[in-house]
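Minutes, structural biology subgroup

Action item carried over from last meeting: produce the structure token record for Rubrerythrin (Desulfuromusa kysingii). EB confirmed the sequence was re-checked against the source entry. Recorded below for completeness.
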Amino acid sequence: MTYGQAKEIVNAAQEFHRRASAFYQQLADKAEGERVKMLLDYLVRHEAHLVRALENYQDEVKTKVLDAWYQYAQEQCLMQPFDVSQYPAAMTVEDVMKIGLDIDACLVASYKGMAETASSQECREIFQNLLLMEKQQKHKLSRVALEIDEM
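Output recorded by EB:
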């Protein structure tokens, strides 16, 4: 187990979304299908939006809560790398959807685990809010992907 402050986890989540945005951009650059490119372009913007949302969230949350120390498992997905080379240029909308949902599922599981093991109610609320935000984004991604696939 690793120790850190809650703000470090939020900062790691921001960095994760920055890397996810760059990852989706690299996939879009090599993708062949027009619908796939549309979905990937959406995901690039979506991840950049989440970075800004987390920045705004940090501004709204009490500094004292963000400074709270927290124990978490190192295997959290926030630290996982993205590997563009494992995906073909001829991806389908379903392939991209699976990638997005896998990434979202990892974040949901991480935030859920952090909320369940939080040492204080205030810290728990931070991770519950992040969990709720990620679940909402997962539903939004599903709707957008369906709309693009049905075009």
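Discussion: The chain has a mean pLDDT of 83.
Next step: EB to file the record with the rest of the batch.
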